[in-house]
Please model this.
Amino acid sequence: MDIQLKRGLLDVCVLAAIKNDDSYGYKIIKDMKPYIELSESTLYTILKRLESSQMLTVRMFEYQGRLRKYYHITKQGLKRLDEFNDDWKEMLAIHRFITREEGSNE
Amino acid sequence: MDIQLKRGLLDVCVLAAIKNDDSYGYKIIKDMKPYIELSESTLYTILKRLESSQMLTVRMFEYQGRLRKYYHITKQGLKRLDEFNDDWKEMLAIHRFITREEGSNE
DNA sequence: TGAAATACTTCGCGATACGATGTATATCAT
DNA sequence: ATGATATACATCGTATCGCGAAGTATTTCA
Model:
């Protein structure tokens, strides 16, 4: 998948990954992997970004000696996911423009 | 439309805009406008990028005293457009991931 | 005569995905 | 027991890229 195409998708994908259940970094990557891959450095950057824009909240838990940060989606995060549907509609129109056949130019 | 979402779409949109008929900068912007907007500085950067990666070729013409650069899509450009279909399929899967409902997390 | 449209160009900024690298602990095979 | 692999999070620097701002010209039209 083209790297440029991933931008703008990644943020919403991460939000979607914690939409139903709180989750943590490593698990988010594994859950997303079948659909879209991202490196750890990318994910933690995104999580920090989403936190500072109040799309999610963070709570720390100790799990088997290891530290885990659990991410919880906020109302704003859910709103963002909802708004993505509008963007998606635009994407569909753009896709039609890209794949349209001859004769549309005047 | 989110700026990040546009990345990766713009290149193929520009190629799509010259797919059927050679075109020039100002016209490309106007043709794309109903679907996706971009500034002149963005377009000319893209056109230069697509030229140096052999996705299109350029020919200069004088039109009513004004200089016009006509862009013509190459075989590679058409191939790029074709390959976008694969990316689009991945996008559809990602979209399903984003909009899926409860219960997919184990 | 001057504003708006046409047409292309260059520069610098901000956003951001990623590889490289680092720090720890747990688990599992040998 | 020991070493490899998996788990878990963090930081830094680099490259890419869209865009606003500003510039240069000419044509069209009020």
Remarks:
- Residues 3-99 of chain A form a domain with the Arc Repressor Mutant, subunit A fold (CATH 1.10.10.10).
- The interface with chain B takes residues 1-9, 11-13, 16, 20-21, 23, 31-32, 35-36, 81, 84-85, 87-88, 90-91, 93-95, 97-100, 102-105 of chain A (CB under 8 Å).
- The first helix of chain A runs from residue 3 to 6.
- The longest strand of chain A covers residues 56-63.
